[in-house]
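ARCHIVE CARD
SHELF: 3
SLOT: left
DATA:
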Amino acid sequence: MATIKEIAKESGVSIATVSNIIHGKPGASDETRKKVLETIKRLNYTPNVIAQNLKQKKNRTIGIITEDLTVFNTPSIVDGINEYCDDHNYQFVLGNLRLYQKYNKKFYTENKYYKHVEEEFKMMKSKQVEGIIYIGCHCREIKCIPYDLGIPIVTAYVFDQDKNFTSVIFNDEQGAYDATEKLIKAGHTKIGVIAGIKESIHTQERLLGYQRALYDNQILFNPRLILYGDWDRESGRKISKELIKLGVTAIFSMNDMMAGGVYDYLESIEKRVGKDISLIGFDNREISTAYNPMLSTMELPLYDIGKKSAQLLINSIENENEKINHDIYKINCNLAERKSIFDFK
């Protein structure tokens, strides 16, 4: 591999001139710039990024810690971070805790797994990263992030209500509002809800969005039309049976898995989603396109969560003397519109 010294010799210019051209600095003529760039290409020169960063006393490297890289939300968030880093000349080191693979859902609520998180943060800092993004595999409040590392930290898909660090999550209330509004615009006024676990912050936020959409459209709120499931398909089947008995013409399911239960129940009574009952889900999981007809659902902005997280972290790194406001940023969801909603007249 060619060196910058060899590029300079081959081009008949100084090492400083080659360096300035590589870094986009002015001073060289167009002819010289063209000659040097052609030589770089011909000799397949690659800048030594590590050496350059050491000279600048900055390594332009961030750490990414994932709770579990195999969970559906995580790859798209990492991809968003990756693109932002590429665009801003940053590298990243990836650490995967594999918590879901090891412990299933237990670690969501049990703090005995916190030590694994703390150890990973210390390990990541030992790699000389300038900041860390922590990606959760279930959106929830967490209390396991060490605050005394001395480098900026941003969390994605999880948050700290006390705002000890900056967090980026999706907007549950807005997503539920738009989902309900979509059903209302299709002519439905008796809209049932298959809610998640009652204590879940997602359930609570999505109920707020549902109620606000009814209020804005002057539809009387009926609490009997809200029934609580457990996020799994079977609870969706049982609840849809009860809601249909109550005469609903449309159902908002708070996730795509419970929406699957609606398809199951309607098939058992020889009725169809999109013809006899309008249905909208939440998450835009892969399974939503496997239903027949395909499910309209609110898409989580995972890629955008990643990009925003990287932007906030890199801004903190590059403006280290500025005061940081540790806020919770909410990114809006988008509707993935398919064939599960019909116009009710």
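SLOT: right
DATA:
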Amino acid sequence: MLFRRLAKRLLFLFTELSDEETIDDVAKKCASIFAVTLVLYINQLLPSFSSEINSIFETACRAFIIINSASLLNNGLDIFNLRHAKRSWHRNNSIKGYIEIAKIIVWIISFILIIALFTEQSPFIIISSFGAIAAVLMFVFQHTLMSFVANILISNGKVLKLYDWIELPSSNISGEVIDIALHTITVRNWDNTISRIPTKDFLTEKYTNWQPMFTSGGRRIKRSFYIDQSSISFATEELVLELQNTTPLQKSIEAMLEDKESVENINEWLEDKGVTNLQLFRKYILNWIKQRGDVRPDMYLVIRTMPPTPMGLPVELYCFTRATTWVEYEETQSEIFEYINASAKYFKLDIYQQPSGKDVTNLNFRR
């Protein structure tokens, strides 16, 4: 108890440890090593047993010192890992996998020293004899070796770091990496559940890391709305006048049709140019999106028609928002498509949807 209290005071004075449990554990091991070493020294000065018992006693004491020293060294590795994680410039670089490998090496060395102690053989002779059972050891530790290789490739390749957002479709996992260990990578899913994936799976399974999207400053919108194909037609003078008289659309429509001022027959000009109500609508939405401050104009911005489907003619919007966080991104996307759905009627276009109960009721009423 005296040695333990002394060790705790020394740890408080000469280290920056703040965790009471860790300090107590380290102090206990330091005190045990010191006490056993002292007893061993006194026993050598004043032997109180027979030579055979003294030999067994000294061997047991030395084995105890080796085990506690190895455990103490592993505590030091844990403390180093915690300090590394707290440093702001190392926040995303986990070394936990390397720490666990170092712990395994420490215990292997301790195991060899204890065997050498009990057999009174040189540790080098014992190490050389391990060559005969190397294949067996590789078979036993094959998962550890594969995890170690995967951990090195992941860490050195910087393809995955702490706090990255990853998706594994095969395992239905989507969330934030909160721990990178030797055998497993821990992910906190967006529903606040915890998933652990074997590290080696990141070498064989398909996964997506969304973190580069955050650093790029642009998050992609790639989404379609469906136009009823029967509502698509050539633009007419009547439609153009209606659009020009609609306050929200006036400036954009006049800018798009500025070449028609010198034309006598507008309808012929529109047909010759192949101008349709859908084309006007696409260009209008494109100009409107460019004027929004929350969409990146320096990245791809396209509105295009896709091959027809039984659901109608898909019109795909492809752009990048400035907001990369989920809530702001979804708000921007919702605002854009709400505006698209509300604006389509000005261009005599119908957004397609499958027949509903209301459609059937109207059909019966007309009959």
